[in-house]
Amino acid sequence: MAESAKTVLITGGNRGIGQEVARVLATEKWDVLVGSRDRAKGESAVARLRKTTSGRLKVVELDVTSDASVATAVQKLRDGAIKLDALVNNAGIYGEGRGDVGTTVETNFFGPLRVTLGVLPLLRDGATITNVTSDLGALANLDRAHQQLLADPGLTREALVTRMRDFVAGDGKGWGTDPYGVAKAALNALTRVLATELAARHIRVNSTCPGWVRTDMGGRNAPRSIEQGAASVLFGVTATQTGAVFRDGKRIAF
Ligand SMILES: NC(=O)c1ccc[n+]([C@@H]2O[C@H](COP(=O)([O-])OP(=O)(O)OC[C@H]3O[C@@H](n4cnc5c(N)ncnc54)[C@H](OP(=O)(O)O)[C@@H]3O)[C@@H](O)[C@H]2O)c1
């Protein structure tokens, strides 16, 4: 009997790196759930992708900053008896400088946490979770105290969440780098924490860094193509390791 297709949910799959990750996995015969906070944008992306791949693609309306949106999306997946083999937490925004601290941290840190906790009951044992990170989230960019905080092997999810709430309440000051960098550094710490929490279910959790990529976010001067960025992210979908940060399939120190 033929093996049934695997299913992946990609947040922010309607453009940029997320759309390319969707294209590659659909080409590899995965069933691809394209997360998009705007249904129409998601439908356009799926229509574009169907021109170049015969894989099965479906839009899931999903705003990673909204509890209600995540709950509704999860309920729809439940109603469709969908089980996930992979989750790619790709949706992100780059708020340059301090900008809107709340939205930057909500999208890049709390978003992946919210979606992960929401879909946890739908994830198969042995599934993978890939958190898309950034070079700007390197620990070295933070001041010493916060490097130590995030690198502490005893750090719990609850403590991390509290510290990120405090960071937002403090208007994004005092960590030595901007909110985007802090959110991605915290996401890498979350990756490690979740990897430990989910090890009993053999769910592997990794961060993957696309590098600086020519998307709407990265701009035209970025050195890497969308294909290169997506390939780096895709490593997490089939990674055998857990709890680490990778770029181009190589573990990087964060
Ligand atoms: N490009 C780079 O150089 C670079 C470098 C390092 C890391 N990254 C990371 O790579 C990931 C993808 O970036 P990209 O370059 O492809 O960015 P992009 O082209 O700006 O696309 C961002 C995607 O995230 C979605 N998104 C934003 N906020 C969302 C929310 N609240 N709920 C759901 N979706 C949301 C966007 O949806 P809308 O279309 O609705 O806005 C869009 O689909 C991000 O996590 C980013 O931080 C990028």
The topology string of helices and strands comes to: EHEHEHEHEHHHEHEE
Bound molecules: NADP nicotinamide-adenine-dinucleotide phosphate
N- and C-termini, Cα separation: 43 Å
Report the CATH C-level class. Alpha Beta
Major sheet strand order:
3-2-1-4-5-6-7-8
Structural category = alpha/beta
* CATH fold label: Rossmann fold
Summed over residues and divided by their number, the pLDDT gives a mean of 96
CATH superfamily: NAD(P)-binding Rossmann-like Domain
Radius of gyration: 17 Å
User: Any guess at the CATH architecture?
Assistant: 3-Layer(aba) Sandwich
Helix content: 40-55%
By DSSP (H or I, 4+ residues per run), the number of helices equals 8
Question: How much beta, percentage-wise?
Answer: 15-25%
Give the CA-based shape.
globular
Please describe the biggest sheet, giving its number of strands, its sense, and whether it closes into a barrel: 8 strands, mixed
Low-confidence stretches: none
How many domains, in number, for the residues?
A: 1
Tally of strands: 8
Characterise the protein shown here.
41% of the residues lie in helices and 17% in strands. With 254 residues, it is of the alpha/beta class. The chain has one domain: NAD(P)-binding Rossmann-like Domain (Rossmann fold). Strands 3-2-1-4-5-6-7-8 form an 8-stranded mixed beta sheet, sandwiched between helices. The termini are far apart. The site of NADP nicotinamide-adenine-dinucleotide phosphate has 29 residues, from α1. Residues 11-12, 14-18, 37-38, 41, 62-65, 90-93, 107, 132, 134, 210, 212-213, 215-218, 222 line the site of NADP nicotinamide-adenine-dinucleotide phosphate.
